[in-house]
Amino acid sequence: MKQVLRLTINSEPYELLVEPYWSLLDLLRDHLHLTGTKRGCDEGDCGACTVLLQGKTVTSCMVLALHAKDKEVITVEGLVRGDKLHPVQEAFVKDGGVQCGYCTPGLIMSAVGLLLENPHPTEEDVRFGIGGNLCRCTGYAKVVQAILKAAEAMPAAGA
Amino acid sequence: MNRFEYMEAQTLPEAIALLGQDEGTRIVAGATDFLVRWRQGVWKPHAVLTIQRIPGLDGVSYDPVTGLSLGTLVTIRQMELHPLIRAHYPALSQAASTFAGVQIRNLATVGGNICNASPAGDTLPALLAYETECHLSGPEGERRLPLESFLLGPGRTVLRPAELLVALRLPPPTPHSGALYIKHSPRSAMDISAVGVASVVTLEGGDGVCQEVRIAMGAVGPTALRARSAEALLRGQRPDTALIQQAARAAMEEARPIDDIRGTARNRRAIVEALAGRTLRSAIQMAQGTDFPFQTQRALAVEATF
Hints:
The complex is a heterodimer of chains A (159) and B (306).
Chain A lengths: L2 E7 L2 E7 L5 H8 L18 E4 L2 E4 L12 E3 L12 H8 L9 H14 L5 H7 L11 H17 L2
Helix pairs in contact in A: 2-5
Chain B lengths: L4 E4 L3 H10 L3 E4 L3 H8 L7 E4 L9 E4 L3 E5 L4 H6 L1 H6 L1 H8 L4 H4 L4 H7 L7 H6 L3 E6 L2 E6 H4 E3 L2 E2 L6 E7 L6 E9 L9 E9 L6 E9 L6 E2 L1 H7 L6 H14 L10 H23 L6 H7 L1 E3 L2
Parallel strand pairs in B: 1-3, 2-3, 11-15
Antiparallel strand pairs in B: 4-5, 5-10, 6-7, 6-10, 8-9, 11-12, 12-13, 13-14
Helix pairs in contact in B: 10-11, 11-12
Protein backbone atom coordinates (compact mmCIF):
# COMPACT_ATOMS: atom_id res chain seq x y z
CA MET A 1 0.00 0.00 0.00
CA LYS A 2 1.30 3.44 -0.91
CA GLN A 3 2.52 5.61 1.93
CA VAL A 4 3.03 9.34 2.30
CA LEU A 5 6.62 10.45 2.00
CA ARG A 6 7.72 13.94 2.96
CA LEU A 7 11.28 14.90 2.12
CA THR A 8 13.41 17.67 0.68
CA ILE A 9 15.01 17.26 -2.74
CA ASN A 10 17.43 19.93 -3.97
CA SER A 11 16.08 22.35 -1.33
CA GLU A 12 12.45 21.89 -2.43
CA PRO A 13 9.95 20.25 -0.08
CA TYR A 14 7.95 17.32 -1.51
CA GLU A 15 4.94 15.39 -0.28
CA LEU A 16 4.46 12.23 -2.32
CA LEU A 17 2.60 8.93 -2.35
CA VAL A 18 5.12 6.14 -2.86
CA GLU A 19 5.05 2.35 -3.04
CA PRO A 20 6.93 0.62 -0.20
CA TYR A 21 9.21 -1.20 -2.64
CA TRP A 22 10.34 1.83 -4.66
CA SER A 23 13.97 2.71 -4.30
CA LEU A 24 15.03 6.32 -3.98
CA LEU A 25 16.39 5.93 -7.52
CA ASP A 26 12.98 4.73 -8.81
CA LEU A 27 11.39 7.74 -7.18
CA LEU A 28 13.88 10.27 -8.54
CA ARG A 29 14.04 9.02 -12.12
CA ASP A 30 10.73 7.31 -12.87
CA HIS A 31 8.35 9.46 -10.85
CA LEU A 32 9.98 12.87 -10.44
CA HIS A 33 11.82 12.74 -13.79
CA LEU A 34 15.09 13.87 -12.22
CA THR A 35 17.00 11.83 -14.79
CA GLY A 36 20.42 13.33 -14.07
CA THR A 37 20.87 10.48 -11.61
CA LYS A 38 21.69 7.40 -13.71
CA ARG A 39 20.63 3.78 -13.30
CA GLY A 40 23.58 1.48 -13.96
CA CYS A 41 23.73 -1.87 -12.22
CA ASP A 42 20.79 -1.39 -9.78
CA GLU A 43 22.72 -3.42 -7.20
CA GLY A 44 25.02 -0.93 -5.53
CA ASP A 45 28.16 -1.78 -7.49
CA CYS A 46 28.64 0.94 -10.11
CA GLY A 47 27.95 4.25 -8.33
CA ALA A 48 26.11 5.86 -11.29
CA CYS A 49 23.08 6.59 -9.07
CA THR A 50 25.04 8.35 -6.29
CA VAL A 51 23.20 11.20 -4.52
CA LEU A 52 23.70 12.96 -1.20
CA LEU A 53 21.38 11.87 1.61
CA GLN A 54 21.78 14.08 4.69
CA GLY A 55 25.05 15.31 3.18
CA LYS A 56 26.51 11.82 2.73
CA THR A 57 26.92 9.94 -0.53
CA VAL A 58 24.69 6.90 -1.04
CA THR A 59 23.84 4.76 -4.04
CA SER A 60 20.17 5.65 -4.46
CA CYS A 61 19.35 2.18 -5.86
CA MET A 62 20.27 0.79 -2.43
CA VAL A 63 17.94 3.09 -0.48
CA LEU A 64 14.24 2.43 -0.05
CA ALA A 65 12.42 5.66 -0.93
CA LEU A 66 10.62 5.57 2.43
CA HIS A 67 13.99 5.51 4.20
CA ALA A 68 14.42 9.11 3.04
CA LYS A 69 11.39 10.27 5.02
CA ASP A 70 12.01 13.74 6.55
CA LYS A 71 15.53 13.73 5.10
CA GLU A 72 17.36 15.91 2.61
CA VAL A 73 18.42 14.61 -0.80
CA ILE A 74 20.72 16.44 -3.22
CA THR A 75 20.98 15.17 -6.78
CA VAL A 76 23.27 16.36 -9.56
CA GLU A 77 20.46 18.74 -10.65
CA GLY A 78 20.78 20.47 -7.28
CA LEU A 79 24.40 21.52 -7.67
CA VAL A 80 24.03 24.46 -10.06
CA ARG A 81 23.53 27.95 -8.65
CA GLY A 82 21.51 29.92 -11.20
CA ASP A 83 23.44 29.36 -14.44
CA LYS A 84 26.74 28.70 -12.67
CA LEU A 85 28.07 25.16 -12.46
CA HIS A 86 29.39 23.76 -9.20
CA PRO A 87 33.24 23.97 -9.00
CA VAL A 88 33.44 20.16 -9.28
CA GLN A 89 31.33 20.26 -12.46
CA GLU A 90 33.48 23.10 -13.85
CA ALA A 91 36.64 21.10 -13.17
CA PHE A 92 35.25 17.95 -14.87
CA VAL A 93 34.48 20.03 -17.98
CA LYS A 94 37.82 21.87 -18.02
CA ASP A 95 40.01 18.88 -17.25
CA GLY A 96 38.32 16.35 -19.52
CA GLY A 97 36.92 14.23 -16.71
CA VAL A 98 33.95 13.34 -18.94
CA GLN A 99 33.88 10.97 -21.91
CA CYS A 100 30.65 9.08 -22.57
CA GLY A 101 29.17 10.81 -19.51
CA TYR A 102 27.10 8.00 -18.02
CA CYS A 103 29.14 7.69 -14.82
CA THR A 104 29.66 11.45 -14.57
CA PRO A 105 26.74 12.50 -12.33
CA GLY A 106 27.63 9.74 -9.87
CA LEU A 107 31.32 10.62 -9.90
CA ILE A 108 30.52 14.29 -9.41
CA MET A 109 28.27 13.53 -6.44
CA SER A 110 30.98 11.29 -4.92
CA ALA A 111 33.50 14.10 -5.39
CA VAL A 112 31.15 16.66 -3.81
CA GLY A 113 30.56 14.29 -0.87
CA LEU A 114 34.29 13.69 -0.48
CA LEU A 115 35.09 17.42 -0.48
CA LEU A 116 32.37 18.08 2.11
CA GLU A 117 34.12 15.64 4.46
CA ASN A 118 37.70 16.36 3.44
CA PRO A 119 38.21 19.73 1.67
CA HIS A 120 41.94 19.10 1.08
CA PRO A 121 42.25 15.47 -0.05
CA THR A 122 45.47 13.83 -1.22
CA GLU A 123 45.44 11.99 -4.53
CA GLU A 124 45.17 8.75 -2.57
CA ASP A 125 42.18 10.10 -0.62
CA VAL A 126 40.49 10.93 -3.93
CA ARG A 127 41.15 7.45 -5.33
CA PHE A 128 39.72 5.82 -2.19
CA GLY A 129 36.83 8.32 -2.23
CA ILE A 130 35.72 7.35 -5.74
CA GLY A 131 36.41 3.63 -5.26
CA GLY A 132 32.64 3.04 -5.46
CA ASN A 133 32.24 4.61 -8.92
CA LEU A 134 32.93 2.68 -12.10
CA CYS A 135 34.04 4.48 -15.25
CA ARG A 136 34.91 2.46 -18.33
CA CYS A 137 36.14 5.36 -20.52
CA THR A 138 38.50 7.70 -18.75
CA GLY A 139 40.88 5.42 -16.90
CA TYR A 140 40.19 7.76 -13.95
CA ALA A 141 43.36 9.87 -14.39
CA LYS A 142 41.56 13.00 -15.54
CA VAL A 143 38.72 12.43 -13.11
CA VAL A 144 41.17 12.38 -10.21
CA GLN A 145 42.93 15.45 -11.60
CA ALA A 146 39.61 17.30 -11.94
CA ILE A 147 38.64 16.55 -8.34
CA LEU A 148 42.03 17.72 -7.03
CA LYS A 149 41.69 20.94 -9.05
CA ALA A 150 38.15 21.47 -7.79
CA ALA A 151 39.43 21.12 -4.23
CA GLU A 152 41.96 23.88 -4.91
CA ALA A 153 39.35 26.07 -6.59
CA MET A 154 36.66 25.73 -3.95
CA PRO A 155 37.88 28.09 -1.22
CA ALA A 156 38.48 30.75 -3.91
CA ALA A 157 34.94 30.25 -5.19
CA GLY A 158 33.66 30.71 -1.65
CA ALA A 159 31.99 27.27 -1.77
CA MET B 1 10.13 -9.44 -7.56
CA ASN B 2 7.35 -9.58 -5.03
CA ARG B 3 5.79 -6.45 -3.60
CA PHE B 4 6.10 -5.86 0.12
CA GLU B 5 4.68 -3.58 2.77
CA TYR B 6 6.84 -1.21 4.78
CA MET B 7 6.73 -0.75 8.53
CA GLU B 8 8.73 1.50 10.81
CA ALA B 9 9.42 0.74 14.46
CA GLN B 10 9.94 3.71 16.77
CA THR B 11 10.99 1.65 19.81
CA LEU B 12 12.63 -1.71 20.45
CA PRO B 13 9.54 -3.25 22.15
CA GLU B 14 7.45 -2.12 19.16
CA ALA B 15 9.91 -3.80 16.76
CA ILE B 16 9.83 -7.05 18.74
CA ALA B 17 6.01 -6.97 18.86
CA LEU B 18 5.65 -6.28 15.11
CA LEU B 19 8.11 -9.05 14.23
CA GLY B 20 6.20 -11.48 16.44
CA GLN B 21 2.98 -10.89 14.47
CA ASP B 22 4.22 -12.11 11.09
CA GLU B 23 7.05 -14.49 10.33
CA GLY B 24 7.22 -13.19 6.77
CA THR B 25 8.51 -9.81 7.96
CA ARG B 26 12.16 -9.06 7.44
CA ILE B 27 14.17 -6.62 9.54
CA VAL B 28 16.13 -4.02 7.60
CA ALA B 29 18.59 -1.37 8.73
CA GLY B 30 20.76 -0.05 5.87
CA ALA B 31 18.86 -2.48 3.57
CA THR B 32 21.88 -2.90 1.27
CA ASP B 33 21.89 -6.70 1.50
CA PHE B 34 18.10 -6.80 1.46
CA LEU B 35 17.60 -4.84 -1.77
CA VAL B 36 20.09 -7.01 -3.68
CA ARG B 37 18.56 -10.29 -2.45
CA TRP B 38 15.01 -9.07 -3.05
CA ARG B 39 15.76 -7.94 -6.63
CA GLN B 40 17.39 -11.34 -7.26
CA GLY B 41 14.14 -12.93 -6.06
CA VAL B 42 15.93 -14.80 -3.26
CA TRP B 43 14.10 -13.01 -0.42
CA LYS B 44 10.34 -12.57 -0.75
CA PRO B 45 9.08 -10.95 2.45
CA HIS B 46 5.43 -9.85 2.98
CA ALA B 47 6.80 -6.81 4.72
CA VAL B 48 9.99 -5.14 5.81
CA LEU B 49 10.38 -3.59 9.22
CA THR B 50 12.96 -0.86 9.43
CA ILE B 51 14.69 -0.36 12.75
CA GLN B 52 16.56 2.70 11.47
CA ARG B 53 14.43 5.20 13.39
CA ILE B 54 14.71 3.56 16.81
CA PRO B 55 16.65 6.05 18.94
CA GLY B 56 19.75 4.91 20.82
CA LEU B 57 20.89 2.14 18.47
CA ASP B 58 23.49 4.16 16.56
CA GLY B 59 25.91 5.15 19.32
CA VAL B 60 29.68 4.63 19.52
CA SER B 61 31.28 4.92 22.95
CA TYR B 62 34.73 4.05 24.19
CA ASP B 63 36.01 3.73 27.73
CA PRO B 64 39.52 2.48 28.58
CA VAL B 65 38.08 0.25 31.32
CA THR B 66 34.98 -1.18 29.68
CA GLY B 67 36.03 -1.02 26.03
CA LEU B 68 34.02 -0.17 22.95
CA SER B 69 30.23 -0.18 22.64
CA LEU B 70 28.65 -0.12 19.21
CA GLY B 71 24.93 0.18 18.58
CA THR B 72 23.63 -2.20 15.93
CA LEU B 73 22.91 0.75 13.58
CA VAL B 74 26.47 2.11 13.59
CA THR B 75 27.44 2.37 9.93
CA ILE B 76 30.54 0.84 8.38
CA ARG B 77 31.63 4.36 7.48
CA GLN B 78 31.39 5.49 11.13
CA MET B 79 33.70 2.61 12.12
CA GLU B 80 36.13 3.57 9.37
CA LEU B 81 36.32 7.24 10.40
CA HIS B 82 35.93 7.20 14.20
CA PRO B 83 39.23 8.42 15.72
CA LEU B 84 38.92 6.22 18.83
CA ILE B 85 38.21 3.10 16.77
CA ARG B 86 41.21 3.92 14.56
CA ALA B 87 43.36 4.39 17.67
CA HIS B 88 42.26 1.39 19.75
CA TYR B 89 40.75 -1.12 17.29
CA PRO B 90 42.79 -0.52 14.13
CA ALA B 91 41.89 -3.83 12.45
CA LEU B 92 38.21 -2.86 12.68
CA SER B 93 38.56 0.58 11.06
CA GLN B 94 40.79 -1.01 8.45
CA ALA B 95 38.27 -3.76 7.70
CA ALA B 96 35.61 -1.04 7.38
CA SER B 97 37.78 0.79 4.84
CA THR B 98 37.83 -2.32 2.60
CA PHE B 99 34.04 -2.69 2.66
CA ALA B 100 32.37 -1.93 -0.72
CA GLY B 101 32.49 1.79 -1.62
CA VAL B 102 31.87 4.92 0.42
CA GLN B 103 28.21 5.04 -0.72
CA ILE B 104 27.47 1.56 0.66
CA ARG B 105 29.56 2.16 3.79
CA ASN B 106 27.35 5.20 4.53
CA LEU B 107 24.27 2.92 4.49
CA ALA B 108 25.36 -0.53 5.67
CA THR B 109 25.40 -1.18 9.42
CA VAL B 110 27.61 -3.34 11.61
CA GLY B 111 24.54 -5.17 12.94
CA GLY B 112 23.42 -5.90 9.38
CA ASN B 113 26.83 -7.22 8.39
CA ILE B 114 26.79 -9.60 11.37
CA CYS B 115 23.18 -10.76 10.98
CA ASN B 116 23.63 -11.34 7.24
CA ALA B 117 26.25 -13.88 8.40
CA SER B 118 28.12 -14.12 5.13
CA PRO B 119 31.29 -16.18 5.59
CA ALA B 120 33.01 -13.32 3.70
CA GLY B 121 31.49 -10.46 5.76
CA ASP B 122 34.24 -7.84 5.84
CA THR B 123 33.89 -6.80 9.49
CA LEU B 124 33.65 -10.34 10.90
CA PRO B 125 37.33 -11.42 11.16
CA ALA B 126 38.25 -8.18 12.97
CA LEU B 127 35.20 -8.39 15.27
CA LEU B 128 36.07 -12.03 16.08
CA ALA B 129 39.72 -11.21 16.70
CA TYR B 130 38.64 -8.48 19.15
CA GLU B 131 36.36 -11.00 20.97
CA THR B 132 33.15 -9.11 20.32
CA GLU B 133 30.12 -9.85 22.46
CA CYS B 134 26.62 -9.60 20.96
CA HIS B 135 23.68 -8.18 22.91
CA LEU B 136 20.31 -9.51 21.78
CA SER B 137 16.80 -8.49 22.68
CA GLY B 138 13.63 -10.48 21.98
CA PRO B 139 10.24 -11.57 23.28
CA GLU B 140 11.90 -13.65 26.03
CA GLY B 141 14.14 -10.82 27.19
CA GLU B 142 17.80 -10.05 26.69
CA ARG B 143 20.82 -12.29 26.29
CA ARG B 144 24.51 -11.85 25.56
CA LEU B 145 26.82 -14.20 23.77
CA PRO B 146 30.16 -14.16 21.99
CA LEU B 147 30.06 -13.39 18.25
CA GLU B 148 31.74 -16.74 17.70
CA SER B 149 28.67 -18.58 18.99
CA PHE B 150 26.24 -16.13 17.32
CA LEU B 151 27.33 -17.17 13.81
CA LEU B 152 26.14 -20.65 12.78
CA GLY B 153 26.68 -20.89 9.03
CA PRO B 154 26.16 -19.01 5.77
CA GLY B 155 23.20 -16.68 6.46
CA ARG B 156 22.46 -18.51 9.73
CA THR B 157 22.67 -17.10 13.25
CA VAL B 158 21.29 -18.01 16.68
CA LEU B 159 18.63 -15.27 16.42
CA ARG B 160 15.19 -16.61 17.39
CA PRO B 161 11.99 -15.37 15.77
CA ALA B 162 11.37 -11.70 16.66
CA GLU B 163 14.80 -11.39 18.30
CA LEU B 164 17.18 -8.56 17.33
CA LEU B 165 20.87 -7.86 17.63
CA VAL B 166 20.92 -4.51 19.44
CA ALA B 167 24.53 -3.81 20.45
CA LEU B 168 28.10 -5.03 20.44
CA ARG B 169 30.73 -4.80 23.12
CA LEU B 170 34.47 -5.12 22.43
CA PRO B 171 36.79 -5.56 25.44
CA PRO B 172 39.36 -2.79 26.01
CA PRO B 173 42.68 -3.21 24.23
CA THR B 174 45.58 -4.37 26.41
CA PRO B 175 48.77 -2.26 26.44
CA HIS B 176 51.48 -3.24 23.92
CA SER B 177 48.96 -4.56 21.42
CA GLY B 178 48.91 -4.40 17.65
CA ALA B 179 46.42 -5.55 15.05
CA LEU B 180 46.07 -5.73 11.31
CA TYR B 181 43.47 -6.94 8.80
CA ILE B 182 44.25 -7.89 5.21
CA LYS B 183 41.62 -8.73 2.62
CA HIS B 184 42.49 -10.53 -0.58
CA SER B 185 40.03 -10.09 -3.42
CA PRO B 186 40.07 -10.33 -7.22
CA ARG B 187 39.53 -6.53 -7.51
CA SER B 188 40.97 -3.85 -5.25
CA ALA B 189 37.68 -1.98 -4.75
CA MET B 190 34.01 -2.97 -4.61
CA ASP B 191 34.75 -6.66 -4.29
CA ILE B 192 33.95 -9.42 -1.84
CA SER B 193 36.91 -11.00 -0.09
CA ALA B 194 38.34 -14.29 -1.33
CA VAL B 195 40.14 -14.48 2.01
CA GLY B 196 40.35 -12.04 4.92
CA VAL B 197 42.61 -12.43 7.95
CA ALA B 198 42.76 -10.31 11.12
CA SER B 199 45.45 -10.77 13.78
CA VAL B 200 45.63 -9.14 17.20
CA VAL B 201 48.83 -9.58 19.25
CA THR B 202 49.79 -8.39 22.75
CA LEU B 203 53.46 -8.61 23.72
CA GLU B 204 54.52 -8.76 27.36
CA GLY B 205 56.24 -5.45 28.13
CA GLY B 206 56.16 -4.54 24.43
CA ASP B 207 59.16 -6.72 23.53
CA GLY B 208 58.65 -10.02 25.30
CA VAL B 209 56.60 -13.14 24.69
CA CYS B 210 53.12 -13.16 23.12
CA GLN B 211 50.80 -12.64 26.04
CA GLU B 212 47.74 -12.86 23.82
CA VAL B 213 47.24 -13.77 20.15
CA ARG B 214 43.98 -13.94 18.28
CA ILE B 215 43.74 -14.77 14.58
CA ALA B 216 40.44 -14.80 12.69
CA MET B 217 39.82 -15.77 9.08
CA GLY B 218 36.99 -14.90 6.70
CA ALA B 219 35.69 -16.60 3.54
CA VAL B 220 37.44 -19.90 4.32
CA GLY B 221 34.67 -21.73 6.18
CA PRO B 222 30.89 -21.71 6.74
CA THR B 223 31.39 -18.77 9.11
CA ALA B 224 34.30 -16.46 9.80
CA LEU B 225 36.43 -18.47 12.25
CA ARG B 226 39.30 -18.31 14.72
CA ALA B 227 42.59 -20.10 14.00
CA ARG B 228 43.00 -21.48 17.50
CA SER B 229 45.86 -23.92 17.01
CA ALA B 230 47.87 -21.17 15.30
CA GLU B 231 47.14 -18.89 18.27
CA ALA B 232 48.22 -21.61 20.73
CA LEU B 233 51.58 -22.03 18.97
CA LEU B 234 52.42 -18.37 19.62
CA ARG B 235 50.90 -17.80 23.04
CA GLY B 236 53.61 -17.57 25.73
CA GLN B 237 56.35 -17.71 23.10
CA ARG B 238 58.75 -15.14 21.71
CA PRO B 239 57.50 -14.51 18.13
CA ASP B 240 60.48 -15.17 15.85
CA THR B 241 60.36 -15.66 12.08
CA ALA B 242 60.28 -19.46 12.23
CA LEU B 243 57.47 -19.53 14.79
CA ILE B 244 55.38 -17.02 12.82
CA GLN B 245 55.79 -19.22 9.73
CA GLN B 246 54.73 -22.27 11.72
CA ALA B 247 51.66 -20.42 13.04
CA ALA B 248 50.74 -19.23 9.54
CA ARG B 249 50.90 -22.83 8.32
CA ALA B 250 48.72 -23.95 11.23
CA ALA B 251 46.14 -21.28 10.28
CA MET B 252 46.18 -22.62 6.72
CA GLU B 253 45.48 -26.12 8.01
CA GLU B 254 42.57 -24.86 10.13
CA ALA B 255 40.94 -23.09 7.17
CA ARG B 256 38.08 -25.00 5.54
CA PRO B 257 37.63 -23.19 2.21
CA ILE B 258 35.53 -24.23 -0.76
CA ASP B 259 35.95 -23.67 -4.51
CA ASP B 260 33.88 -20.77 -5.80
CA ILE B 261 33.92 -17.87 -8.21
CA ARG B 262 36.53 -15.95 -6.16
CA GLY B 263 39.06 -18.73 -5.86
CA THR B 264 39.75 -22.42 -5.49
CA ALA B 265 40.05 -24.01 -2.06
CA ARG B 266 43.71 -24.75 -2.75
CA ASN B 267 44.46 -21.16 -3.72
CA ARG B 268 42.58 -19.87 -0.70
CA ARG B 269 44.60 -22.05 1.68
CA ALA B 270 47.82 -20.66 0.23
CA ILE B 271 46.47 -17.12 0.66
CA VAL B 272 45.55 -17.80 4.30
CA GLU B 273 49.13 -18.80 5.03
CA ALA B 274 50.49 -15.63 3.40
CA LEU B 275 47.98 -13.29 5.05
CA ALA B 276 48.29 -14.90 8.50
CA GLY B 277 52.07 -14.39 8.33
CA ARG B 278 51.78 -10.80 7.12
CA THR B 279 49.11 -9.73 9.59
CA LEU B 280 51.04 -11.33 12.47
CA ARG B 281 54.30 -9.62 11.50
CA SER B 282 52.64 -6.18 11.24
CA ALA B 283 50.64 -6.69 14.46
CA ILE B 284 53.87 -7.60 16.27
CA GLN B 285 55.66 -4.51 14.91
CA MET B 286 52.75 -2.37 16.03
CA ALA B 287 52.82 -3.99 19.50
CA GLN B 288 56.55 -3.23 19.65
CA GLY B 289 55.73 0.45 19.16
CA THR B 290 56.09 1.01 15.40
CA ASP B 291 53.60 3.67 14.34
CA PHE B 292 51.14 2.61 11.63
CA PRO B 293 49.17 5.70 10.57
CA PHE B 294 45.71 5.02 9.16
CA GLN B 295 46.88 5.79 5.61
CA THR B 296 49.51 3.04 5.90
CA GLN B 297 46.99 0.60 7.33
CA ARG B 298 44.47 1.44 4.61
CA ALA B 299 47.10 0.80 1.94
CA LEU B 300 47.99 -2.57 3.52
CA ALA B 301 44.38 -3.66 3.95
CA VAL B 302 43.63 -4.86 0.43
CA GLU B 303 45.68 -7.18 -1.74
CA ALA B 304 44.03 -7.65 -5.08
CA THR B 305 44.72 -9.67 -8.19
CA PHE B 306 43.85 -6.66 -10.39
